[in-house]
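dumping this here before i forget
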Amino acid sequence: MANGFQHNGVWSFKLPDPFNRTPYYPLTSKQMAELLDISERTALRVCKSESKLSKAELVFLQMHIFGYIPDPDLLRYGVSFRKGYLYSH
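structure:
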């Protein structure tokens, strides 16, 4: 299954909604490049399904777009929120 699509000449990534309110959030390659601090060419490859995001990158994008996600992996790795800041132990 392709995780990207092109609409009006712009490539976008289907960012899954962890809360199942919508099927996905259309994240453009430019937005992805800015959020992950990667090149636009790399983000374009991800949108075209030529490259994959790591689980950490996917969770980071979901947290940035949708907000806090209660995830057992975050608790196991010692990641927590306090007073609006993300802490890692």
